[in-house]
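Data availability (excerpt). All sequences and predicted C-alpha cell strings are deposited with the supplementary files. A representative entry, MYB binding protein 1a, is shown inline so that the format can be inspected without opening the archive.
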Amino acid sequence: MESRVPAESASPGGAATSGPRPADREGLLQQSREFLDFFWDIAKPEQETRLEATEKLLAYLRARPQVGARRGKYALKRLITGLGVGRETARPCYSLALAQLLQSFEDIPLCSVLQQIQEKHDLQKVKKAMMRPALFANLFGVLALFQSGRLVKDSEALLKSVKLLQNLAQHHNHLQEQPQKALVDILSEVPAATLQAILPKVLKADLNSVLGSPEHLELFLLAQQKVPEKLKELIGPVNLFSDENIPRLVNVLKTAAASVKKERKLPAVALDLLRLSLREGKFPRFWKEVVEQGLLKKQFWPASYLCFRLLGAALPLLSEEQLPLVMQGDLIRHFGEHMVTAKLPKQFKFAPEMNEYVGAFLEGCRDDPERQLAVVVAFTRITNQGLPVLPTFWRVVRSLSPHALKGYVAWLQTTFLRPDLDSLVDFSTSNQKKAQDASLHGPERAVFRLRKWVILRLVSTVDALHAEKEDDLIEEVARFCFFHSFFETKKPTSQIPETEQQFSFPLESRTREVVSSAFFSLLQTVSTQFRLAPARTPDGQPWTHRLVQFADLLLSHSRNVTPLTPFTTQQRQAWDRMLQTLKELEACSAEAKAKASAFQHLLFLVGIYLFKSPAESCELLADIQTCIQKSLGEKPRRTRSKAATPQEPPWVEVLVEILLALLAQPSHLMRQVARTVFSHVCVHLTPRALQLILDVLNPEKSADEDNVVVTDDSEKQSESGEVRARRGGRVDMGWGFEVAGGGEGGGRACMDGEDDGDEELGDEAMMALDQNLASLFAEQKLRIQARRDEKNKLRKEKVLRRDFQIRVLDLIEVLVTKQPENPLVLELLEPLLDVIRRSMRTSSSKQEQDLLHKTARIFTHHLCRSRHYCHDVGRGLGALYAQVERLVQQAGRQADASLSLYYFNAALYLLRVLKGNSTAATVCKPQKKEKAVSATGTCGGLDLSLVTPIFSSALTSFLTKRNSPLTVPMFLSLFSRHPVLCKSLLPVVIQHVTGQARPRHQAQACVLLQKALPTRELRLCFEDPEWEQLVSQILVKVTENLRTLGEAQSKSEQQQELSSLGLLNTLLRTIHQEKLTVDLTGVLGVLQSQQQRLQPGGRSASCSRLCNLYWQAMKALGVQRPKSEKKEAREVPKVTQSPLSAKRKKKGFLPETKKRKKRKLEGAAPAEEAKPTAPGGDQPPSTGKRRRRKRKAQGPTQANGTPATKRPAPEAMTPSAPAKTPKLQEKQQPSQVNGARAASPAAPAGRKQPQKDLPEKGVSGKSPQSALPRKKARLSLASRSPTLLQSGAKRKKASLKKARKP
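C-alpha cell line:
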C-alpha cells in the first residue's frame, strides 16, 4: 500500500521555505487528515472498523457537496488503487467500500470506473512480480460493480465486465475458479432477456465444456432454468443423467466438493442438480448412481460430506414416499459409521450440522406430522450392532408437533416390547469386524443395547414434554417405566393396559435394572420443579401421588400382575399404613399444609423405593410416620431454652437421621426431597439434632469410624518387612536374608556364617531353593496387591465421605437461609471454620475444592452477610463473649491471612449479634448527637468492658508482631461497623505511630488512623474538646515521625514516610474543615527543615509520590509549590561547562601519549572536586548526566520553595512566626497567620553561587562532562592501566560509603 503522507494545508508562508516542494501527484497535500484517515481504517482487519470507516466516508462526501466532486474523485482513485494492494485482507475491504460508494453516488458512470480499474491495473503493462495483485484488483473491481446493484441495469458495463471475467479466467494459477463463480453470480441476477443475449458469449455449444468444471455446469443449469429455449437452440436436447454423463457428473461434483472443503458448505451446483432430477422425475437414478454408487465409492471425505449435506438439503424437497429411498441406503449407513468413528477431539464431526438440517426440516413442516415422524424414526433406526448412533437426548425432538410426538413415543414403546431388528439400518465398524467375536453379533446383545437406548430416549423425551405440559403423555411414559421396572404380567386385563403388552424377546434382569434407574430419573423430573413448570398434575396432586395410586392398583390385582420382589406381611402393612397417613395429611388444616406437603413428598418417595429395597424402606416408613404424628401434634419451638427442656420430643432427631440416611444414597432426587423436607422442619430443630448434622463434618469421628471399618489386625501382622523398612529410605535386611537364603532356614544359615556359602548345592537342593524363592515372591506380590486394594478402598471411602459432606451442607444452607434468627445458627460458626481450615490445607483434589467453596459460600454469604440474625440469645451471653475472644485469638494464630479473615469475620458477626441482642442487661438510649454509649460502658447489647481488651490485645499483636496474619482491612471493617469500639482502640493505634515500633508497623498505624478519622460515625462518638485533643495528640506523633523525612533507606521506611505524610494531610484537612484550634507551628517548622531533602528529580514512583504529598501538606500550611523555569535550565549548563569537556568535543587526532596524560588528569580532577559537594555526607555521587546538571543549575532558585527572583526580604517571614489555626486568626493580624502564601521562610540566596556550593541531591562537584566520553575513558583505562582503574574504583567506593553515613 502506498505510504502514509501527512496532510498539511498550504500555509501563506509556504513559499519562504527552503528548497523546492516535491510534486503532489496524488493530491494528498490538498486533503484533510480526517478525510485521509478513512482510507486507512477501511483496510483494517476489524470488520466493525471497516464498516464504520465506510459509513463515515460516505457521510463526509454527502455533507460537503461543494467539495464532494473533487474529493469524490480522489476517493474513487484511492479505492481503485487499494484494490491491488499487497495485503490480501485489505482487498475485499476496498472492494466493499467501492461498492458502497457507487451505490450511494449513482451519477458516477460504471463504464468509466471499469476503465479506470483496467488502466490502473493493466494486465498488459504490469510487471511479472505484480501480476497477482493486478489480477485480484480487476476481479474485486468487477465484484464491487456487481455489489453496488447497478451492474445488472447497465448493459454496456455488464458486457465489459463479462468480457473481463472471461479474460481473468485464463489465469487459473492465481485466481482458480473465482472468475467463473463471479460470472455465474452476476448472470443469476440479470433478467432473462439480458441472459438470452449474453448466453452465446459465455457458454460454449459443447457438452464436454459444460461437464468440464462445476462453474460451467452451474451456468448450464442456470440457463436451463431461466432460458431453456435459448439453451436448446444453442446446444440441443441434453440428458445429463444418461449412462455416459453420470461418471462425468460424479467427477464434477467431486471437484466441487474439494473446492468448498474449507468453507464447509453445500456447492450450489449439487443442489441445482438435485432440483433438476426432481423436476425431471429422475431422482432415484440420481441418488443411486450419482450419490451412493458414485461419490460414496470415491473414498474421499469431502465427497462424503457433500453427500451428507445433500441429504440434509433434500429432506424438505422429498415426499413421504421418497424419504425411505434416502434414509435406508448406503449413504445413511455411511453417516452412522462416521458418527461412531468420529470421536477424536480434533476430528471433524458432521453431527451438529446434520442436527441443524433436521431441526430446520421439522420446524418447516409442523403441519405435516407424518413426514416429521418418518424422518425422526428413520434417524433412530441407524444402529451400530443394535445401539442407535444418535444421543439419547436429541434437541430436535422439541420441534415435533404433538401428534408426531405421540406417534414417536408409541413407536419407542413398541420397539422396546417387540424389537424389529430387520427394519434397522445396522452396521459394524472395521474394528468390530476384525474382532470376529460370535457373542458380539447375537440378537440378544443387539436387543439389550436397543432397549437400553429406547428407555433412556423415552425419559429424555418426557424431560422435554414437561416444559410443554403434555400431562397424558407424561403419565403414560411414567406408568410404562414403573410397570416394567417392578412388575410382570400373569394374566392380561383391560383395566391395566400395561398387562396387554407382550414381549417378542424376554425381558432380562439387567434390562429391568436399566429401566428402574431410568424410572427414578424420570421421577426426579416429574416430582421436582423443572424450570417454571409446576411439579403437579392439573388436578393439583403431585406426580408421585399418581404413581403411588397406580402402584396400589397393581398390588390390588394380584391375579393379573405380581411384583418382581413380593411383599412380606410386614411390608404390605407398612404400605397400607403409608396410604392411611397420606389421607390424614390431606385432611390437615391450612396452617400445617406446607409441612404436610413436605411429608407427603417424603412418604411418596420412600413408598416407591419400597419396591426397590423393601427391607430398608419399611423401617424408614415406620420412623417417618412416627415423626409425622408427633410433629403435627405440637406447636413450633421459638426459643433456645425451650428446646433444651427434657419434654422436647425426639421426633426431629429421628427425622434428621432419616434425612441423613437418604442423603447417603447417590440420588439427586433424594437430595432434593431431603432439602425440601428439612426446610419445613428446621424450625423445630434441637441442639441434639443439629449435632447429628455437625458430626458428619467432624473429622475426628469420621477418623474413628474409618479405623473401625478399615483396620484389620491380620493384615497388620502380615505387613511385609519391605514396606516397614522403607519408611525412611532403609532396606529390610530380614526379608533380604530370607530371600537370599531361599527361605527361613537359608536365611538363618546366611546370618550365622558365610563359610558354608562356598559349597555347591545339588540339583534337588537348587530346585527346592527355586520353589522357596518362587513362593516367597508370590506371597510378597499378594501382599503388595492387598496393600494396593486397601489403599484404593481408603481412597474410595474418602471420596464417598467428602461427597456425603457436600450433600449434608445442603441442610446447613437451608438452616441459615430459612432460620437466620435461630440461636442454633451461632453454633455453626466454629464447625464451618474447621471445615474451611482443613480444606485449605488439603485442597488438592477437585472434590476437596468443591467442599471448600461451598462451605466458604455458606459461611460468607448466607451467614455473615445475612440481613437477619439472632436477636435473642437467652442466657448465652457469657458464652458468646468467650467465643468472640476465642475466635479473635485463633485469627491471630493462623498462618495464612485469607484463613485468618474467616475467623475475624466470625468474630465481627458475633459482635453484630451481641450489639443487637434484645435481652442485654442494660440497653442505653441514644443521647445527643446520636451517641449510644452509656455510663456503664455498653452500646446496645455490647459490653465494651469485655470486648475492648479482646481487640486491644489483637491490635497490639498486629502492630508489634513481625509476621501477623491480621491485616489493616480487618480492623478497618471493625472500626466502620463499631465506631464506639474504635474510640476505645484509638489510644493503642496512636501509641504505635512513633516510638520503638518497626517502620512497617508505624506505617500500618498511620494508615489505620488515616482511614478511621474521616468517618462520620467516629466523629459522633467524641465531644468537641475531646476531638480537638485527639487531633492535637496525633499531630504531635506525626510531627515526631516527620523529623526524619527523606532519610529512608529501606522499603518499609519509605512506606512509613508516605503513610505519615498521608495522615498529616488528613489531619490538616480535618482541622480546616472543622476549624479546630490547633497549633501548626511545629509541623510547619519540621517540614521546612526537611525541604532540601525533598528536591524534585527522584526517579522512583515512591520519591515522586512523597514529594507530592509533602507539597500537598505545605499547600495546606500556606506555602505554594515552586515552578521550574526551563529557560534558565537550558542556559546554565552553557555557562558552567568546563573547558576540559570543550576540548574533548574538538575533532582530530592526538598521539596516544597525550591522550593517556590527559585522561590521568581527568581522573584526578573529579575526586578533588567531589569533596565539598555533599554537606553532611548524605548526597550520593553524581552520575554525570546532563539532566542532573540542569537541575543542579536550577538549585539556587528552587531550593527554598519559591523562585529566587520573586522572593521577598527575609524579614517578611521567619520560622519564629507561629502558624495558627483559623480560630486564632480572628485574634491576630492576617500577616502573622500561617505565613505569607507567596513567601518562603527559607533564607535568601544570591544571584550566583559557586557550583560546589549547590546542595542538590544526586549531583556532586565533578565537572559536568557527558556520560559517553567518560565511558570511553574508562574503557581505555581498563585496557591499558589496570592499576589506575582499580584505584579509581576504590576512590568511588570510598566516596559512596562516605555518602551513606548519617
